[in-house]
Amino acid sequence: MISMAEFLAKIPKMELHLHLEGAIRPQTAVDLARKNGVALPPFERVEDLYRYDTLEQFLKIYTAVSDSLVSADDYRRVTYEMLESCAANNSRYVEFFFSPQIHFPNGVSFDTQMDGIRAGMADAESDFGVVSVCAPGVNRELGPAAGEDFLDMIFARGDEKLVGIGLDFNEAPFPPEPYAALFERARNVGLQVTAHAGETGPAEFIRGSIDALKVRRIDHGYHVVDDPELMQRCKDEGILFTVCPSTSAVTSPWHDLSAPDHAIRVMKDFGLKVMINSDDPPMFFTDLGKEYGKAAHQLGFTPADIRRSTIDAIEGSWLDDTTKRRYAAEWGAEIDGLIAELG
Fold first, then answer.
1. What is the domain extent for residue 172?
2. What is the CATH number of the domain that holds 256?
3. Which residues neighbour 105 within 8 Å (Cβ) at sequence distance 6 or greater?
4. How far apart are CA 305 and CA 300, in angstroms?
5. In whole angstroms, what separates CA 304 from the centre of its chain?
6. Average pLDDT score over the chain
7. Tell me, what's the pLDDT at 260?
8. What local confidence, expressed as pLDDT, does residue 147 receive?
């Protein structure tokens, strides 16, 4: 027999909502900032660097830490460390975001970023067996024109590990619709698409992301619970929500993960497809294993819920159909065996 903690540790996992810059370990951020002569906000203990109460405060620190990345080797290091942490939590496949546009003002080119990221991905796959691909995030605060220029860089790179794009950064004042043409261009060349919506923005931003951007995956999406009609539509259409327990407790209005009306619990109980992710793990003192623990112990996920979430994640991932079927069969059987062992 195994305990719930052992079950959660052993189940195969994937990450579909993880930000490279948000996964930089605090000591690594300090090391790189000192090496590259970058000023960080004042702190007494290194862990105090990652303290904030709102999305806006978080993004300020996120930007400062991002500024510490300068060379390809900096990107290799943080990518490798991120994927090392994923592997330690039995995450076997990772689709991660990174934020190239935030680095351009510092003179760091897209190719420099990708060269380092690719090296870190290759080293992590060799050392830990974790397979990964990446999706640059379009900074919605910079406007569609800057996004179009950025998309040209992605096309020029032509990298098979660049499988999609996301829409991210501060959501509330920046609806998705202005990015419709950009997302159409991306889809037309075979890139997958997703969007941050409904974290701090209203349910209408979720609807706009589905209608204007044609996404089948919503990152966060908690405000869907404010619109019963939209909830039913998302259930009927099989929209996948990549939810993140720890960050939801800070950046969304639902601060108490144990509350019966927490959005993630409501979404899960309604029958929406939700899967568990870590988002910006060291910046919120968590990791994927802890997020699964919070899902089980605070958000009411049963072993059957977690199995369903895993299969939904596989189906909503950007893997090819053959690999999806293989993962669903193999991982499903593995989880069934672990459920049978639960005490």
1. 4-341
2. 3.20.20.140
3. none
4. 9
5. 23
6. 96
7. 97
8. 97
Q: 140-176 pLDDT, tens per residue? A: 999 999 999 999 999 999 999 999 999 999 998 999 9
User: Phi/psi at 44 (nearest 5 deg)?
Assistant: -95, -50
Q: What is the mean pLDDT of residues 173-193?
A: 97
Number of residues assigned to the chain: 343
Separation of alpha carbons 193 and 216, rounded Å: 8
Tens-place pLDDT, residues 202-219? 999 999 999 999 999 999
Domain count, the chain: 1
Closest CA to 98 of 126, 125, 117, 85: 117
Is residue 63 scored above 90 in pLDDT? no
- Quote the CA–CA distance of 224 and 204 in Å, as a whole number: 8
**What confidence tier does 39 reach under pLDDT thresholds 50, 70, 90?**
confident
Instruction: Scan for tokens 């999406």, then name that residue.
Output: 221
- CA-to-CA distance for 11 and 16, rounded, in angstroms? 16
Q: Which residues are catalytic?
A: 199
Residue 193, beta-bridge partner list:
165
Dihedral sign computed on CA atoms, order 175, 177, 154, 152: negative
Closest CA to 166 of 207, 136, 203, 211: 136
- Phi first, then psi, for residue 26 (nearest 5°) are -60, -40
Angle (CA) 185 55 143, round 5°: 30
